[in-house]
Write a structure and sequence with these properties.
The structure is a homodimer. Chain A has about 325 residues and is of the alpha+beta class. In chain A, about 40% of the residues lie in helices and about 20% in strands. Chain A folds into 2 domains: about 220 residues, 2-Layer Sandwich (Ribosomal Protein S8, Chain: A, domain 1); about 45 residues, 2-Layer Sandwich (Wheat Germ Agglutinin (Isolectin 2), domain 1), CATH 3.30.60.50. In chain A, the strands form 3 sheets. A 7-stranded mixed beta sheet of chain A has the order 1-2-3-11-4-7-8, sandwiched between helices.
Chain lengths: ~325, ~325
């Protein structure tokens, strides 16, 4: 899968190093089970390059340093490469100052934010990061979308692996709503309001009303707003409402923070503290479903192991499309 | 109200300066409409002092510095005073390094986290902070509480005021469930699972099952876990599960981050960027309820203005109790 992605990227004039890194990110996202932002998103990424929204040869540059906080310009380069670079830079700053923060404007969709959490955590860093997006969710008490779903990531080292939470501000993504509709299913929990303003588990009703539910109702709507304000202010970049004045989503604003656990007074006892928390969580009494209680990121490990052994399942039609690129 | 709080605190051997500051925080929380963590919480705060969980004369001390990140020991001092001090210290560090982070262990309940967001934002700082708590919410898919509701605060300057989001990881607090039950009402949205494992709007059913709903379901449960891990690791303090081994909640772990907007390249244009975001939000089409679309913190301004003019409403019984302290 990676070599196929790389072949396409080289054809689009990526340098060998950049094609390798970008193909690696898309392939890893699929390997770890986040197909929506791996193999299934790859054709759209290529389309955005062809349309000029994503600049293949652009490099992010630092525009301002305030010490442990830096402001960068992504110059509309490939989102995954810019995000990988900003994560590395936040870690570099943090090695010096205990905490590092890089905010980047004019960047592009980072695909799956969690991968930068894994990147940092596996090197011994706590990671907090988020991105804004175009408008796709109404404010609380509103009918029309003026907030983004603004994904956010928290990560922490856990042994040789990591605990990684990667979540967006809508309870269910539009991708999930569409997939559930195609399968003729209902959502497991209310996922939005229908046109009559009632909560519904029908994906079709939500796709029609365009009123997906924020996580935690008014709380997630508020968090979306604050994440957009912070990303915009810290990066000096475009806010959700400015992004949405464009013909499509490009030039988003993102924030990356890193903290090296080795710099803390309680290193290396940190590992025991985290293990203790996870062990206690695992002692939970399962509810009626009887399902296993998992920590964020645990399923990624299972997917990775399974797919390394048995291969990554792909939709034949999408794969054929990629082979034709 | 403030002088009444101060009278009680002086009687408990607070110094004049500390009594003044602590009374100010409790009174402001009530003034701004957060009665649950102002006047209504004051008797329990006094009780915790009398029982020795909160040490009146303890001062927080720095135990480790990693540059822009510091680890402090709260020495079980009054939570609001420790939190106010850690917020100030994070701002002080940030003035030097662009971002400052203070993590504190062995501290106590900060009452209303939002007030520290206002404190920082009104001085020109972006603020991010959170606390862990004792166990009060089940993990996703679990019946028994092993997670805290771990309140989190985001704040940003907005003109001479601030935009402040102060939210915990449960959709409704136990206080809200109890109040709704007493009033004989239903919750406006499902707030937890009943003993049969079905979502319910009945506060009584949730108070019985002890299964309040995390915000965003599995997402808020995950966020609660990560906030606990990060607070524990960064402060070298007690985690939710360790706190819950004690007879009551004391010695919690907290994190305070500050970023001075004056240090950013886009200052002072930041004010326009934020105003633009809020103006766009206010253009939202209201839903069926017809209610005003508000930004986080807007109601605080309304409460403050109303109460400064008309006084702070208090429950007579609670007020009598405070007068007898």
């Amino acid at each position: 899968m990676k070599s196929e992605f790389k072949r396409v990227l080289l054809k689009l004039d990526f340098t060998d190093v950049k094609a390798e890194k970008c193909a690696e990110i898309f392939a890893t996202n699929s390997l770890e089970g986040i197909y929506s932002h791996g193999v299934y998103r790859f054709p759209r990424f290529v389309d955005y390059i062809k349309k000029g929204y994503v600049k293949v040869d652009a490099e992010p540059v630092r525009i301002h340093s305030a010490g442990a906080l830096e402001q960068w310009n992504g110059n509309l380069g490939p989102g995954p490469l810019n995000a990988e670079k900003c994560t590395s830079r936040a870690m570099e700053i943090a090695r010096e100052t205990g905490i590092g923060c890089v905010a980047v404007k004019n960047t592009n969709h980072w695909m799956r934010g969690g991968i930068y959490g894994w990147q940092a955590a596996k090197k011994g860093f706590i990671f907090i990061g988020w991105t804004n997006t175009e408008k796709n969710m109404p404010a609380w008490g509103a009918e029309d979308a003026r907030l983004g779903n603004n994904p956010m990531v928290f990560a922490v080292p856990f042994g040789k692996e990591a605990i990684v939470l990667d979540f967006s501000m809508t309870q269910f993504s539009y991708g999930k709503l569409e997939a559930t509709e195609i399968e003729g299913d209902k959502l497991p929990f209310p996922g939005g309001f229908n046109e009559e303003g009632n909560l519904t588990t029908s994906p079709s009703e939500i796709l029609k009303s365009r009123r997906p539910l924020p996580i935690g109702l008014w709380k997630g709507a508020g968090l979306s707003l604050l994440l957009d304000i912070l990303a915009t202010v810290l990066s000096a970049g475009l806010s959700t409402h400015k992004l949405s004045e464009q013909e499509t989503e490009y030039g988003v604003s993102q924030v990356f923070m890193a903290i090296p656990i080795k710099k803390l007074s309680n290193f290396p006892a940190i590992e025991n503290a985290i293990s203790g928390i996870i062990e206690d969580l695992k002692k939970s009494t399962p509810d009626e479903s009887g399902a296993e209680i998992r920590y964020p990121g645990e399923r990624v490990l299972q997917n990775r192991a399974d797919h390394l052994k048995n291969g990554i399942p792909v939709n034949q039609k999408v794969w054929e499309e990629i082979k034709r690129l």
